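Pipeline run #58 for the internal structure catalog. This entry was flagged by the ingest filter as a single-chain record with no existing model, so it goes straight to prediction. Upstream metadata was stripped on purpose; only the residue string is passed forward. Reviewer on rotation: M.T. Logging verbosity set to normal.
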Amino acid sequence: MPHINCYAYAVGANKSLCPGARKTGDSSIFDWHKVKAITTERKRELLQACMKDGLTDMPLTGRKIAVFINQYSDCIDYHFYKLDEGSTWSDKLGDQGEVRHGNDCKLMNLALVGRPDARGDIIVDQAFCGYLYVPQNLK
């Protein structure tokens, strides 16, 4: 699974996806490369894009994921974790990154602040947006 991003990893897709583009494949639909601040509106925008892909905020029998926004010096970007069997969390750092495992997704994401990401860019802040659920029958 070396060439999928964190969103695809969390929702169980077999190719990299941007939130909101699962059905269309249009990766330009969600471009934050010029957005410089994490805001309530950006959190809402990210959650709505995921829900457009079929995810829900209602607990189901499907996979639970955690949604974050990471801030860089010149832009913001999303990041996702999935709850694995055994109640541990995992994530994938970029489309070339390794899969990481831990007990607390919020602490895992907080630990990214001040460190280079998979591209070598430094995350300067982060925000938790909420939990969503991936239905088992999501296609």
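catalog note: The first helix runs from residue 6 to 11.
catalog note: The chain has a mean pLDDT of 88.
status: ready for reviewer M.T.
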